Amino acid sequence: MAPPPYQHRDHTVLALFRAVVGLLFACHGAAALFGVFGGTPGAPPTLGQWPGWWAAVIQFAGGTLVLLGVGARSAAVVCSGSMAYAYFVEHQPGALLPIENGGEAATLFCWCFLLIAALGPGRWTLDSVLPGARRAAARPGAPDTATAAGAEPDSPPRAPAS
Asked: Which of 5, 18, 65, 106 fits 86 for a cystine, CB–CB 3.0-4.6 Å?
């Protein structure tokens, strides 16, 4: 059965979505950790301070992993959870709705990362070109190598070159 004609485009759009969300999230972490991009409002978090420093580390490391597509699903789950925590602990006690309590960014990041975790990273991941990704794809239950390398999941196998 041939894949739908829009499938290639969907994987491309998903990869672009993943890269943009990862980049924006990593920038938030870099701003808090390194004071770049205008820094953060107020004092920067001190080393090991809960939750500020740990949230910044998750933002920077998780956003970078999602951006590059290295362990993107696992990183997206951690990033989504950190934003859910941020919303319910820091924002929600002030008011019920995100528009009232300043939690729009936390809510959007939470749901964006949950979407990436559920649908996968799309095309153009660093995982697809790393040698370990091909070994992992050979394990039972792992995605097939063609899909991990960015090929269409339902495309017919190619004939060997002669």
From this structure: 106
Residue 94 CA to residue 91 CA, distance in Å, equals 6
d(CA 147, CA 38): 40
What predicted TM-score, i.e. pTM, was given to this entire model? 0.75
CB 59 within 8 A of CB 28: yes
Find out whether 21 and 53 touch, Cβ atoms under 8 Å. no
DSSP structural state of residue 126: G
Burial of 46 (0-12, 13-18, 19+ CB in 10 A): exposed
Judge contact between 30 and 37, C-beta under 8 A. Answer: yes
